[in-house]
Amino acid sequence: MNVRKIIKKIVRKTLIFIGTLLWHFYPKKLPSVEILFIFKNADMGGAERVQLALLEVLQEYKSITLLSHKSHGGHFLKDYRKYTTIKDISIFSNSILSRWITSGYMQKMIERSSVKVVFGSLSGLFYDIAMNIDTQHTVFVDLFHACDNNLEYYSLDSVERLDARITIDDKTKETLCILYNSSGIEERYKDRIALVYNGVKVPLTLPKKHEGQTLNLLFVGRDVPVKRVHMVREIATKIPMASFVLAGVSARPNDTPNLRAVGKVTDVTGYYGQADILLLTSKREGFPMVVMEAMANGVIPICTDVGGISKHIMHGKNGFLIDSKQSEDKIIEDFIKTIKMLEEDRRLKECVSREAYRYAKKHFDIWHFKETYQKLFQEWIEKNED
Question: Is residue 204 part of a domain?
Fold first, then answer.
């Protein structure tokens, strides 16, 4: 370990300890709840949609949800509030140094509370709190969406205190196990890593698609570097006869006439109903919700082969995979070839669409998601009943 990392660990532990001392001078208590959720924010994104689904599934339990980072629009905030009490504490935890102090203070609040489960998602604050907390009456669980070369390493200091880790795809689980091996973490902690696939609402029958002369292509997501939206725009310039919709992305002055960027969208159902193909050009993913939603609506996913996508998409059968290790120019070229193939072979397009829907109905139905989480939380809460 280099000197910088050693100093960071010392500062982190010191500030957490200062936070615990502050609680003794200014003690506050958590309300009487069964579950304390700690999420990063309520912005637009696949992970945040999973969090919303989880809150809905567990609405029978009393809960508080802490948002540890500043939101940029709070896309899901109104929906979160339907199922839980929201406390935005980002003023105390948005910066790293104040977050460490806040985590020490929160440790004492949790130790003195009746909270049965502390559940974290995408939040470094959750791992700071879990590290060295002095309580055995509370179950600590994290929902790990994807390895990003940051959070998986940051979470290692808290592994021994985590009673369970939920991953959403096989690839992320495998990556965590490899990381445990390389970090010298005991084998028994791998047994605490569970796999729970996300769930989406799957229509009872395959939605009918309007068969036009041109294809309708859809991108759903944020305009952030990892999603590489610029590649979708480039593809649109090369296939002028196709129609492109970018949901979640703002328009630009130089967008081609066949491309429509519609900005933030509260409900993407209608766009899936019109689309033939979903384009996913990401550098990195876990297993995206948009792929599940697209397949559930018979939309054919064409995706870069990243994260856990290849665990579900069988190339040429229920979708298409593009080699992500190539140059961007070659990736774009392969996307265009695949789109043109489907444009020319409508029978293939129909078959792949049908298989995508069948796979989603069998594996992604929200019913499985609900049943699994209800069972897990019931076990965790009953485990610590007085």
Answer: no
Check residue 42 and report its DSSP letter.
Answer: -
Q: Measure the CA–CA gap between 339 and 148, rounded to whole angstroms.
A: 29
Domain CATH code at residue 328: 3.40.50.2000
Per DSSP, 215 falls in state -
* Domain around 292: 216-363
3-class DSSP state of 267? coil
Same domain, 56 and 191: yes
**Cα angle at 368 between 365 and 374, to 5 degrees?**
140
**pTM reported for the whole predicted model:** 0.85
Q: Average of pLDDT values for 272-283?
A: 95
SS3 category, 256:
coil
Reported as a single tens digit per residue, the pLDDT across 327-375 is: 999 999 999 999 999 999 999 999 999 999 999 999 999 999 999 999 9
CA 354 to chain centre: 26
Number of domains into which the chain is organized: 2
- Tokens, residue 28: 């506050």
SS3 content of the chain, % helix, strand, coil (to 5): 45, 15, 35
Cβ-proximal residues to 371 (8 Å cutoff; 6+ apart), any chain: none
Q: Which amino acid is at 331?
A: I
| Residue 206 placed within a domain | no
Q: Which residues of 173-203 are buried (b: 16+ CB within 10 A; e: fewer)?
A: bbbbeebbeeeebeeeeeeebeebbbbbebe
Q: Are 218 and 315 in contact (CB under 8 A)?
A: no
Helices (H) and strands (E) in the chain, counts: 14, 13
